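Re-run with default settings, no changes from the original entry. Doing this only to confirm the output is reproducible before filing.
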Amino acid sequence: MGGGEYSIYYLIKNLRKDIFEPIVFYSHENKIVKQLRKDGISLVNIRLNEKITSVYRDKIKKDPLNLLIYIRYLLPGIFEVVKFLKKYNVDILHPHDNLSKIIAGPAAKIAGVKVVAHCRDLLKESLVEKVLMLYQLLFMDRIIAVSESNRRLFKLGTKVPDKVQTIYNGVDLKRFGDVLENAVLTKEELGIDNEKFVIGIIGVFDKCKGHIYLFHAVEKLLEKGYKNIVCLVVGDGREREDLKGFIVNRSLTDYIKFLGYRSEIPELLKVMDIVVMPSIQESFPRVPLEAMAMKVPVIATNVGGLPESIDNGKTGILVPPRDVISLYEAIKHLIENPELRKKMGEEGRRRVGERFSMKNNVRETERLYLEVLENS
């Protein structure tokens, strides 16, 4: 589970129930599904063969024959969805991830249902990604891009189709505001000296997130005499063993601490002095918004939608991707300028409140739903 999954959860939870009745189709039980059940949201289990739920996009890139696995097992999944669309008299289907979109497109067409989909991916490099992009343009009635950078990927010739619209991710300001006023987690509880400068990175362990560049920057800070630092690594994923191996081999275990997957993100952000996103590619992640909501300055790479969330020099610092020296210098600059960190934090909270609140996100999505229905 990542930021995208939490974004869709907050949307479901905060839709106006006097207008919309959300029903969630899911194939696997996870923390979000369990929470939705507690919230009283209707849930329907869709049976999908594991042979399609376990094939990652990179497997198809390496061996296109894996695409045949999808085709073989997609049909039962499609007709399962058709059955429930008709049973529950669904008006709009909102698929979340790529597999859901692949199933939802033909299912909705068969059932005569409108489809609104989120696109959180950067579909531009491989043939598989380009096919996924064209598939969405063909089957979806509306596509919600999470950033202008993301929206522009759908350009056909000189123009982006009108069906692709940008709606930025949003943050629940009350949840983060409550933590700002009432800290429930301390450095001591995390085994950190209270005087340490805390660098944070939050995200799935994937090469595109660029963890290794931050680790190199931390190593350089130590070489230059900045010993009073600690880097908290929040998350998990396929690169876990490689990243931990790097830390051990470079003798950085006293300075870089892996916390694993954690749900109390606002509380952890309260402990951090800065948040770093050294990503190689991004669409429009939640982490910078959540950090700014907690008045934490963000250092991030100048890729994808990150420049749309971070006001360079005011709420954080943007650096080139894969540039360890620039990353090191940005961290060093904020370590040495506590007043600047405080000012950036205040500006970040203001910016999120004005442009990236959960309320704005949900109301804009509701307007899009209603527009789709009015045009049907």
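The mean pLDDT is 90. The two ends are 34 Å apart (CA to CA).
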